[in-house]
Write a structure and sequence with these properties.
Strand 8 (183-184) and strand 9 form a beta hairpin. This protein has 13 helices and 17 strands. It is an alpha/beta fold and 399 residues long. Helix content is 39%, strand content 18%. The chain has a 7-stranded mixed sheet, with helices on both faces. Strands 1-2-3-15 form a 4-stranded mixed sheet.
Length: 399
């Protein structure tokens, strides 16, 4: 059958009709252990009863009224986010790319409002991924995303990841901000060392810059803390969040200190759908779950077990797995075989994973998994390793 969808995705030949917790059931009835999480989106699992009920309850009331009116659910969610983070103010939108666009505009407007419109450039880091809009692909700087879309949007300078001398050399009179993912997701689960993030914070103070953290993928409990910046002890001025924040309902948010957001005055930014009652109900329901006593403690407990077992798996299969990366339930396997081959082998064992840059396979399960599901995932990953080793042996024999 010819598809009417734009062919921009290499979709696996599987369709799912229902999910429960960390499990998905395909249209043919086969069950898959979901360690992709819709790319870190299904934070509280599939069909979580509290999230489902929150959506149903709100859907029976009102879906959309626009930001021309008060939205009580948004006021509540904003208050909960500011109370739980460094931020004073939030702006709701629909996606991570939009949250990053808001962060970029906010950083530029901050300096313009203070009489320095020439300070608009933002330094980002090689391997970054900040979204698919024209500005955010320029911020990411990766050639494969930029090619064919005309001149790169001006205002972004890339430096190597974790290279402090290069960063210092790149800061100039037009620099407005530094923008970084605490852990590069698409870039291969590369973790920014805490001392590097502390150095960024110091450079921002020295040069009057704003520090932006892109926590679209790392946020909402993914690393065992509500946000990854807590692991380093370094708070940003502006932060983007999306993916897991509403458990699968489209929602993004840009969080900021009052000072960083001081240029964002009446009418300078907006959104039609952002902050609508349906999204706010889902966002509040996810926070009910993630902020409940013991929830993040369990994420840390399960993630430690998973990482230990993955390290053992690496030791048993060194020809397939080179390195274990990441924090919390944002784990990466750097493989010696093509990561797409490994992901396909895992899928053949009914385990879903997500390929990333630097030949890494991401494991991004729902945060509600228990120890049994973590161990079952490792069992299936071992079977995938055996498949890869068998394929390697067959290739050697044929040669």
């Amino acid at each position: 059958m010819t598809s009417s969808l734009l062919p921009t995705y290499a979709r696996a030949d599987i369709a799912f009709e229902r999910g429960d917790g960390a499990w998905l059931t395909a249209t043919n009835g086969e069950r898959y252990l979901d360690f992709g999480g819709g790319i870190a989106v299904t934070s509280v699992g599939h069909s979580h009863p509290h999230l489902v009920q929150a959506l149903i309850d709100q859907a029976q009331k009102v879906w959309h009224v626009s930001n021309l009116f008060q939205i009580p659910g948004g006021e509540r969610l904003g208050k909960r986010l500011t109370e739980a983070t460094f931020a004073d103010l939030v702006f709701f939108c629909n996606s991570g790319a939009e949250a990053n666009e808001a962060a970029i505009k906010m950083a530029r407007k901050y300096h313009a409002a203070k009489g320095h419109p020439e300070r608009y450039r933002i330094i980002t880091f090689e391997g970054a991924f900040h979204g698919r809009t024209l500005a955010t692909i320029a911020a990411g700087g990766q050639k494969k995303y930029l090619d064919g879309f005309g001149p790169k949007v001006d205002g972004f300078d890339q430096v190597p990841f974790d290279d402090l001398p290069a960063l210092k050399a790149a800061i100039g009179p037009a620099t407005a901000a530094l923008m970084i993912e605490p852990i590069q997701g698409e870039g291969g689960l590369r973790v920014a060392p805490p001392e590097f993030l502390r150095a960024l914070r110091a450079l921002c103070a020295e040069h009057g810059l704003l520090l932006i953290f892109d926590e679209v993928q790392t946020g909402v409990g993914r690393t065992g803390r509500l946000y990854a910046y807590e692991n380093s002890g370094v708070a940003p001025d502006i932060m983007s969040s999306a993916k897991g924040i509403a458990g699968g309902f489209p929602l993004g948010v840009c969080l900021a200190t009052k000072e960083a957001a001081s240029g964002m005055t009446l009418g300078v930014h907006g959104t039609t759908y952002g902050g609508n009652p349906l999204a706010m109900a889902c966002g509040n329901a996810v926070l009910d779950i993630v902020l409940a006593d013991g929830f993040l403690d369990n994420v840390r407990k399960v993630s430690l077990l998973l990482k230990q077992r993955l390290a053992e798996l690496k030791d048993r299969h060194p020809a397939v797995i080179e390195e274990i990366r990441g924090e919390g339930l944002m784990t990466g396997l750097k493989t010696r075989v093509p990561n797409t081959d490994f992901a396909a082998a895992a899928r053949a064992e009914h385990l879903l994973s997500i390929p990333a840059g630097d030949n890494v396979v991401r494991l991004l399960p729902p945060l509600v998994i228990g120890e049994a599901e973590a161990l079952e995932a490792v069992r299936r990953l071992e079977a995938a390793c055996l498949r890869c080793e068998a394929a390697m042996k067959a290739t050697e024999t044929a040669a």
